[in-house]
Write a structure and sequence with these properties.
With 91 residues, the chain is mainly β. It has strands at residues 10-11, 26-30, 36-40, 46-48. It is 0% helix and 16% strand. Strand 2 (26-30) and strand 3 form a beta hairpin.
Length: 91
């Protein structure tokens, strides 16, 4: 990595270092190989984060896969009977 292209390091608010236990001293950045890295500025702890290859889409009621097809059901329409419907009844 050339000196003019230093990675932008950002502090992670509330993060605690796993090695020294100090809070708010962890920085996160992307290294030259495009991997996320976190490190402690107090003790020098350094860790490259492993990112999952392909994140699976969360299952919701919209994306839920059906195990079996839905069967079609016929609808039954009933003829309005005078006196049974509130619009036709005397008021």
């Amino acid at each position: 990595m050339s000196p003019e292209h230093k990675p932008v390091k950002r502090f992670i608010a509330g993060a605690v270092c796993p090695r020294c236990g100090v809070m708010d001293r962890i920085v996160s950045y992307v290294d030259s190989s495009q991997r996320s890295v976190r490190e402690c500025i107090d003790c020098g702890f350094h860790e490259k984060l492993v990112e999952p290859e392909a994140a699976a889409e969360l299952e919701t009621r919209v994306t839920k896969k059906r195990s079996q097809p839905v069967k079609a059901q016929p609808l039954k329409f009933y003829k309005n009977v005078r006196g049974k419907n509130t619009k036709d009844s005397p008021g």
